[in-house]
């Protein structure tokens, strides 16, 4: 098959430029089955998936002006899961393939460099890999519905395009905002990533969110903001010393603009409150987060945010700057402003569904985003089979944030079962 190449989409441009020797932006999605995974069958499933999802089977290449993605000739083999989730993906590995396929006992996992796609794209890839594996292993007939596609079909043009380029408003929205409180702790010297997963009954979580008149995402962001504010207060940062508490929420623009793509199509918003203005009750924080999230994510404002990013990408002078200089500029801008407007992410994948023949064979799905370069905690959420899985990842030793967050959920009447790696 002839090699193809793809320009990085608008959201993906920054990620290769900010790679460090001990960090890059990678996330993980996984499916736990009812029976152990057969690696030989999994390899066959990966091979059969490759022609249908060409933008996922790529390596990172360096051009004169920009990085780009190039399709790989041969599908990678599945590796046995090792060490801990989201081990560092080196530049050498990215030059070979930007996606890892992993298995361990009953679990199939996919780890993705963020320049390839976002969480939704990664989940679609995983769901189709799992469906193809089950079809090959057990002869199960799985219909092409929901996120499951017919692997014998050719890729659709809309799946491979950069949707950012067609969704910008005529006027860009300024990205200026206050710097937020920064979480900190004792870094793990070996880059180990601690993961604590809270398992909640989805119906109870929805009930509590609806009691406050907000979405599940806004509700969890509110409780997480309470935990962050409590941690800041415990450090003695009160009064004028306090900083705004803001949670970063990635927004899936496929829903906003009604488009389908396997590339990145997500933008983040920061919502929260300023403790310097006074004390807030739980109800006030929920109402504030709900209103802010609803207001910031209407199509018009998201289109304005898209325009801001696309306008920068289209500046002629920036386009003509050679990549080594461009990389220094992007890294500097990212260091100064890329991560200091929020305390941490909460990325909610929502409710995952699969075709009926698959459901009895799949125990659970999980979604884990990595830590950012300059702040050590992150949070990701997915719901499947009536349970919500909240994965708290950290690159530091201290567990205070997780303790405050999950304890607060229990205090609010939501039972939480805890797992840890």
Task: Explain what the structure shows.
This protein is α+β, with helices and mostly antiparallel strands. It folds into two domains: 5-148, Chloramphenicol acetyltransferase-like domain (Chloramphenicol Acetyltransferase, 2-Layer Sandwich), CATH 3.30.559.10; 173-349 and 375-420, 2-Layer Sandwich (Chloramphenicol Acetyltransferase). Helices cover 33% and strands 23% of the residues. It contains 13 helices and 15 strands. The strands form three sheets. The protein has a seven-stranded mixed β-sheet. It has a five-stranded mixed β-sheet with strand order 5-6-7-2-12, with helices on one face. α2 (39-49) packs across α4, α7 (216-234) packs across α9 (282-296) and α7 packs across α13 (400-411). The chain is globular and about 60 Å long. The mean pLDDT is 95.
The low-confidence runs, each spanning 5 or more residues with pLDDT under 50, are none
Mean pLDDT: 95
How many beta-strand elements?
15
The CATH superfamily label of the largest domain reads: Nonribosomal peptide synthetase, condensation domain
How many domains, as an integer? 2
The CATH class designation of the largest domain is Alpha Beta
Indicate the CATH topology of the largest domain: Chloramphenicol Acetyltransferase
CATH architectural type of the largest domain: 2-Layer Sandwich
H/I helix tally: 13
């Amino acid at each position: 098959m002839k090699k193809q190449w793809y320009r990085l989409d608008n959201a993906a441009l920054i990620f290769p430029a900010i790679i460090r020797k001990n960090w890059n932006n990678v996330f993980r999605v996984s499916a736990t089955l009812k029976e152990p995974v057969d690696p030989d069958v999994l390899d066959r499933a990966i091979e059969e998936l490759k022609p249908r999802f060409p933008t996922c089977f790529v390596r990172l290449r360096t051009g004169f002006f920009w990085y780009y993605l190039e399709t790989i000739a041969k599908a990678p083999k599945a590796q046995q899961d090792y060490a801990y989730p989201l081990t560092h993906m080196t530049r050498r590995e990215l030059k070979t393939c930007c996606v890892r396929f992993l298995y361990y006992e009953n679990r199939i996992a996919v780890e993705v460099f963020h320049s390839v796609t976002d969480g939704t794209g990664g989940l679609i890839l995983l769901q189709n890999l799992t469906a193809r594996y089950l079809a090959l292993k057990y002869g199960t007939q799985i219909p092409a519905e929901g996120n499951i596609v017919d692997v014998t079909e050719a890729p659709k043009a809309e799946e491979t395009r950069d949707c950012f380029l067609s969704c910008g408003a005529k006027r860009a929205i300024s990205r200026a905002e206050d710097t937020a409180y920064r979480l900190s702790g004792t870094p793990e010297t070996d880059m180990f990533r601690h993961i604590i997963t809270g398992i909640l009954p989805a119906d109870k979580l929805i009930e509590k969110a609806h009691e406050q008149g907000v979405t599940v995402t806004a509700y969890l962001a509110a409780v997480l903001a309470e935990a962050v504010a409590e941690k800041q207060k415990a450090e003695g940062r009160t009064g004028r010393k306090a900083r705004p508490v803001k949670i970063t929420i990635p927004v899936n623009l496929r829903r906003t603009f009604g488009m389908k793509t396997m590339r990145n199509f997500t933008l983040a918003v920061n919502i929260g409150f300023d403790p310097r203005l006074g004390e807030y009750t739980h109800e006030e924080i929920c109402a504030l987060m709900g209103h802010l999230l609803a207001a910031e994510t209407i199509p018009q404002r998201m289109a304005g945010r898209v325009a801001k990013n696309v306008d920068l990408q289209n500046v002629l002078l920036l386009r003509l700057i050679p990549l080594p200089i461009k990389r220094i500029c992007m890294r500097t801008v990212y260091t100064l402003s890329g991560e200091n407007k929020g305390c941490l992410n909460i990325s909610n994948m929502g409710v995952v569904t699969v075709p009926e023949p698959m459901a009895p064979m799949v125990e659970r799905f999980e979604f884990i985003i990595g830590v950012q370069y300059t702040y050590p905690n992150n949070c990701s959420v997915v719901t499947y089979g009536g349970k919500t899985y909240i994965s708290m990842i950290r690159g530091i030793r201290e567990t205070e944030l997780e303790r405050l967050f999950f304890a607060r959920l229990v205090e609010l009447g939501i039972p939480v079962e805890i797992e840890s790696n």
